[in-house]
Structure to design on (235 residues):
């Protein structure tokens, strides 16, 4: 059984990726990163998801708050109640500078210690417009880097592969896939600004896309949103 490292954030995308990797026959090693995110309750969700899936799970601490530049690593306000047009108008303040490059770098190092050559990442189509490090070109470039910069590839003859099976999917596609694989979406968190009890706000970009995804997929949304003031389709 080949080994794979799955970056597990605790959200519905990464939970689906975990299920996909297991369905593909990989021995999964789940990796989460505590980077100082304001929604760090997602790490608890990730730990529970990994435990329920019966996979090894590791959390690495790397505080990016000192770097700043993001609403997710500071006290800056998280955007709420935005339309689809607003979400697609440039890079949002929830972008964390170089985050996916950093996360994949950590996952690559972990994979090399495990003798694993496969890395799974839950980027999807809805992230392309706003987040430059969620584009297919980014992952292709990182895969090239991985095969130039590691002992496993340059000396031992291995070849790393970056798997992003959700990259061309809508949120509804992802939810349907996860539902088919038995993912417990009630145990996932997508919210960028949960309350002190870890409950989703229902109004940030991630919550709105999650709500719309469940509605489009025809799958009941098990999320208990709080502070939800709007109930309109994205335009």
């Amino acid at each position: 059984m080949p080994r794979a490292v799955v970056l597990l954030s605790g959200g519905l995308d990464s939970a689906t990726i975990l299920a996909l990797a297991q369905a593909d026959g990989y021995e999964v090693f789940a990796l989460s990163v505590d980077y100082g995110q304001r929604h760090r309750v997602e790490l608890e969700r990730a730990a529970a998801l990994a435990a329920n899936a019966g996979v090894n799970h590791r959390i690495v601490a790397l505080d990016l708050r000192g770097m700043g530049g993001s609403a997710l690593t500071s006290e800056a306000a998280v955007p709420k109640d935005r339309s689809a047009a607003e979400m697609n108008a440039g890079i949002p303040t929830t972008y964390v500078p170089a985050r996916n490059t950093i996360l994949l770098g950590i996952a690559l190092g972990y994979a090399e210690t495990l003798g694993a050559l496969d890395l799974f990442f839950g980027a999807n189509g809805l992230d392309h417009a706003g987040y430059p490090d969620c584009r297919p070109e980014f992952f292709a470039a990182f895969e090239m880097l991985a095969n130039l910069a590691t002992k496993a590839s340059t000396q031992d003859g291995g070849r790393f592969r970056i798997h992003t099976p959700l990259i061309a999917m809508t949120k509804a596609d992802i939810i349907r896939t996860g539902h088919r694989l038995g993912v417990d979406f009630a145990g996932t968190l997508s919210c960028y600004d949960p309350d002190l009890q870890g409950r989703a706000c229902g109004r940030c970009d991630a919550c709105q896309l999650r709500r719309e995804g469940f509605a489009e997929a025809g799958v009941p949304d098990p999320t208990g949103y709080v502070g939800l003031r709007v109930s309109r389709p994205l335009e």
